[in-house]
Every structure is written in structure tokens, then in C-alpha cells.
Amino acid sequence: MAEFIFTIILMVCLGAVLYLVVQALPRIEEAPSDDRGFFDRWAHSEIPEKIDNAVNTFLLKFLRKVKVFILKIDNALAKHLQKIKPEENKRPAIDFKEISGQNKEGPESEKLLDK
Known about the structure:
mainly alpha, 5 helices, elongated
């Protein structure tokens, strides 16, 4: 509960400071400055926006081509790995019924076991 009260007091104080700053803003005069530097004029022109659009377009096209190139490499590596992959020796499944003597043939399997 104490944290809540302290938080409310903090917010009221911040609101009071903000109110005082807003009241003081109209008194501040902005001096017109005709002597702007090169970088200030450049920053407020349309050139940075045009450069940004050109860079974004270039990056979009470039990254798409890089993505296609990487996918082609991935496909080539997958095909190469498939070629050199050792083939598994497929052994027939173990027939446990035959081992235990519970074959479908019945008596014939018993004859083989007697031998």
C-alpha cells in the first residue's frame, strides 16, 4: 500500500513539473536563424529521403538475390549428400514366431526342431 501512495505522489509531482514547463513555453522566443550550416540545410532537404528509398530498394533486391543463391546452394548440397549417403543394408525383419516355434505350419516346424 505504501508503494501505491508513493507512486501517486510521484505522478502528482511529475504532473506539476510538466504544468510549469508548459506554462513557461510561450515566454521562450525562438530567434530566427538565417545562417544555417550545410548539414542543417542538407538534413531538411529531400535528399536524405531519396537516398533512404534508393538504399531500401537496393537492399530489397540484393537480399532477395542472396536468398535465392543460398537456396540453390542448399539444394545442390542436399543432392550431393543424397548421392554420397551410404545405402542401408536392408536385413529382413526377424520373425520371432519362427524362432519360438509358433509357425503357421505347426507340426512341420516341430519336425525340424526334433532333428
